[in-house]
Amino acid sequence: MTECQEEPLILSTFLDYFLDWYISNFDMVCKLIKEWLAVYRSTKTNIHARLQETQFLMEAAYKLLLTYRIDRGFISQEAANEQYNSFYQQLRGIIRKQNTRVYQTKAPKTDINYLALIRTMYHEGHFTLAESAKDFEAKFHDGVLHNGYICFRREGLTKKMQAIEPSIIYI
Questions:
Q1: Are residues 9 and 69 in the same domain?
Q2: Alpha helices, DSSP H, located in the chain
Q3: Are strands 129-130 and 143-146 parallel, antiparallel or unpaired?
Q4: Cα–Cα distances in Å, from 72 out to 7, 43, 76, 77, 165?
Q5: End residue of a domain, out of 87, 105, 123
Q6: Which residues contact 117 (CB under 8 A, 6 or more apart)?
Q7: Taking CA 151 as the corner, what is the angle to CA 148 and CA 155, rounded to the nearest 5 degrees?
Q8: Which of 5, 21, 104, 171 suits 142 as a labelling partner, its CA being 20 to 30 A distant?
Q9: Paired strand residues for 143
Q10: What is the distance between the alpha carbons of residues 22 and 28, in angstroms, rounded to a whole number?
Q11: What are the tens digits of pLDDT across the range 101-134?
């Protein structure tokens, strides 16, 4: 990127040549993308569907760039394979990390009756509540009584509920 910023014509020249090649080889490019898409759709993984699609698009774009470089004689097939494998490993690692985040943030599918648990904990005195918003102090209170409702701070409520029911991950 530094070279492209210092010499703006490098990027525009590359894009001009790449687009000329792309247009000249449009039928071949379409055929390649259809083949890659068929392989992508036939592969079953535990990766979230949107992440799978993102991975496919990034892989296809990179493969297309490598195909252009091979066709123009800038790189050998072996070197292209090595570069693609390196790219794939890095991309796959990023996708796996993101996939873990996606599935961690989903609410766990449990049969916990949260309202009943909160009600029981309230009646057993597990919460310290302020009588009004003016009286609320975060270091002393778990929540506040407001217009007949109990309002909790999520972090404190989650910790207290986890002490009673360990299967609760996040509320």
A1: yes
A2: 2-6, 8-24, 26-42, 49-71, 77-105, 114-123, 154-164
A3: parallel
A4: 22, 31, 10, 12, 63
A5: 105
A6: 161, 164, 165
A7: 165
A8: 104
A9: 129, 152
A10: 9
A11: 887 765 545 577 777 778 777 777 777 888 888 8
Do 136 and 87 have their domain in common? Answer: no
CA 35, 37, 42, 47 dihedral sign is positive
Question: CA-based diameter of the chain, in Å?
Answer: 76
Q: Which residues contact 171 (CB under 8 A, 6 or more apart)?
A: 114, 154, 157, 158, 161
Residue 127 DSSP class: -
Residues 88, 57: Cα–Cα separation, whole Å: 12
The pair of structure tokens assigned to 6 is: 């210092």
Q: How many domains does the structure of the chain reveal?
A: 2
**Tens of pLDDT along 13-36?**
888 999 999 999 999 999 999 998
